[in-house]
Amino acid sequence: QVHLVESGGGVVQPGTSLRLSCAASGFTFTTNAMNWVRQAPGRGLEWLTVISNNGNYKYYADSVMGRFTVSRDNSKNTVYLQMNSLRSEDTAIYYCGRDRDSNSPEYIQNWGQGTLVTVSS
Amino acid sequence: SYELTQPPSVSVSPGRTARITCSGDELPNKYAYWYQKRTGQAPVLLIYEDTKRPSGIPERFSGSTSGTMATLTISGAQVDDEADYYCYSTDRSGNHGVFGTGTKVIV
């Protein structure tokens, strides 16, 4: 059974950094690309980024390009989201998701339960 | 950047049919997917590759496409179907995912 567990969320001040983790189990981690998606309070789902199965390809939404960096450690079955220069509008629940494809986004087959990030002074 | 447009809300009486549309210029060339999102829960995949239903998803959920529009149909809507629904696809490059603006279904 596929299991994705996000961690690392919390309350941080504007301008600071935070790193989220997503630990995966129940499937061959090196087979699938991994996505990050967020949902701000009262807002819709927003796709943020995807990293290919081997980490060679990374794509970002315009809203986070240059501030957020996705990475993965296949030896630990974990994907990360490094978030820098955080703003109040980054306040959201952050989900990781296992993609159907290996290289680029196709669709998210499995989701974690999410981790809450609150950016506030 | 690429956008997928949905109506903000759709109201339906129990047992009737609800249709949720998703409009996007690349939909003739890209698959559409549909997710159900309840507050406090992770999204659930309802439809993939325009029309296919994953195992475990009730038959009352179906998908279709025509030109630049994809449609999720809930036939015989139930009170339990009250939730937010999102279409999903990719942009022309295929390198960026995009969610629709979301539709709240009220039963």
How is this structure best summarized?
The complex is a heterodimer of chains A (121) and B (107). Helix content of chain A is 0%, strand content 50%. Chain A has 121 residues and is mostly beta strands.
Layout of helices and strands, plus pairs?
The complex is a heterodimer of chains A (121) and B (107).
Chain A: E1 3-7, E2 10-12, E3 18-25, E4 34-39, E5 45-51, E6 58-60, E7 68-73, E8 78-83, E9 92-99, E10 108-111, E11 115-119
Parallel strand pairs in A: 2-11
Antiparallel strand pairs in A: 1-3, 3-8, 4-5, 4-9, 5-6, 7-8, 9-10, 9-11
Chain B: E1 9-11, E2 18-23, E3 33-37, E4 44-47, E5 61-66, E6 69-74, E7 83-90, E8 97-99, E9 103-106
Parallel strand pairs in B: 1-9
Antiparallel strand pairs in B: 2-6, 3-4, 3-7, 5-6, 7-8, 7-9
Question: Radius of gyration of chain B, Cα only, in angstroms?
Answer: 13 Å
Q: Give the structural class of chain B.
A: mainly beta
How would you describe the oligomerization state of the chains in this entry? heterodimer
Fraction of residues in H or I helices of chain B: under 10%
Strand content of chain A: over 45%
Give the uncertain stretches of chain B in residue-range form.
none
Order of helices and strands of chain A: EEEEEEEEEEE
* Strand percent estimate of chain B: 35-45%
Shape of chain A: globular
Shape of chain B: globular
Greatest chain-chain contact = A-B, 25 and 23 residues
Could you explain the architecture of this structure?
- The complex is a heterodimer of chains A (121) and B (107).
- Helix content of chain A is 0%, strand content 50%.
- Chain A is mainly β and 121 residues long.
- Chain A is globular and about 40 Å long.
- In chain A, the strands form two sheets. In chain A, strands 2, 4, 5, 6, 9, 10 and 11 form a seven-stranded mixed sheet that branches. In chain A, strands 1-3-8-7 form a four-stranded antiparallel sheet, with no helix packed on it.
- With 107 residues, chain B is mostly beta strands.
- In chain B, the strands form two sheets. In chain B, strands 1, 3, 4, 7, 8 and 9 form a six-stranded mixed sheet that branches. A three-stranded antiparallel sheet of chain B has the order 2-6-5, with no helix packed on it.
- In chain B, 35% of the residues are buried.
- At the A-B interface, strand 4, strand 5 and strand 10 of A face strand 3, strand 7 and strand 8 of B.
